[in-house]
Specification:
The chain is mainly α. The chain has six helices and three strands.
Length: 235
């Protein structure tokens, strides 16, 4: 949740900086003065928000599309490049000197080029995020639980998994005397679905899947149940 919030914060700050560039180019003086006042606070928030976003989403890297990861890193590194190479004061250049003017012109061209690159990276990042999320939603919606209550289960320990993209579960299911006696969650990649892991106790108690999901962790509940079914239907 906080990763999403920091992501939107970064997008908001980036839009402010983009509007500043547009108002200056279009000659909108009043708007340009307004966004000029917001430039430094927005730049600082973008830097802090970007760092916080990277830290918060780090545990989710395995569950994100590679393009989302690459464009996210690329955007942040591009912004750091802008700060380091385009906004230093040129301490060793004499004020008003030809070298200072030449450097300022070069920095302006570099700033514009990097800003365009950042804009493209942000657009691709958001586009692939929503494509990735749509595919995840489709996988969750397509989960069909067929039940295990009518299976003739042979004693043994079986392993199964289900991957929905943003959520992945791998389980080990032990069958004793024809009934499920134990379920161990070997791996559960999720965002806020930890509570769903208790559903394995309900499966053992009821000897069936397709039971009510754990409140607040519906999708993880479905994925874990499907992993259990996959373990038992494979043998």
């Amino acid at each position: 949740m906080f990763g999403i919030i920091t992501g939107f914060l970064c997008l908001f700050c980036f839009i402010i900086l983009l509007l500043k560039a547009l108002t200056k180019r279009c000659g909108l003086q009043k708007a340009d003065r307004l966004f000029m006042k917001l430039h430094k606070p927005a730049s600082g928030l973008l830097l802090l928000g970007g760092m916080a976003h990277m830290i918060l989403v780090f545990p989710l890297f395995k569950m994100r599309h590679p393009v989302v990861l690459l464009t996210g890193f690329g955007t942040f590194l591009s912004y750091l490049f802008l700060i380091v190479f385009c906004h230093n004061k040129g301490l060793f250049l004499l004020p008003g000197s030809r070298a200072e003017k030449s450097t300022a012109a070069y920095k302006l061209r570099l700033h514009r080029s990097m800003s365009v690159i950042m804009l493209l990276l942000v657009i691709i990042h958001i586009l692939f995020y929503y494509i990735d999320f749509a595919q995840y939603s489709q996988k969750i919606a397509s989960i069909q639980l067929h039940g295990i209550e009518n299976l003739c289960l042979e004693d043994g320990t079986y392993t199964g998994a289900y991957d929905a993209g943003y959520i992945y579960a791998q389980v080990s299911v032990t069958v004793t005397n024809g009934s499920v006696s134990d379920i161990q969650i070997l791996e559960h990649r999720h965002q806020r679905g930890l509570a769903a892991e208790q559903i394995v106790n309900d499966i053992i108690a009821s000897q069936q899947t397709g039971i009510d999901a754990v409140s607040g962790a519906t999708n993880s509940s479905l994925v874990i149940q499907k992993a259990v079914e996959n373990a038992l239907h494979l043998y």
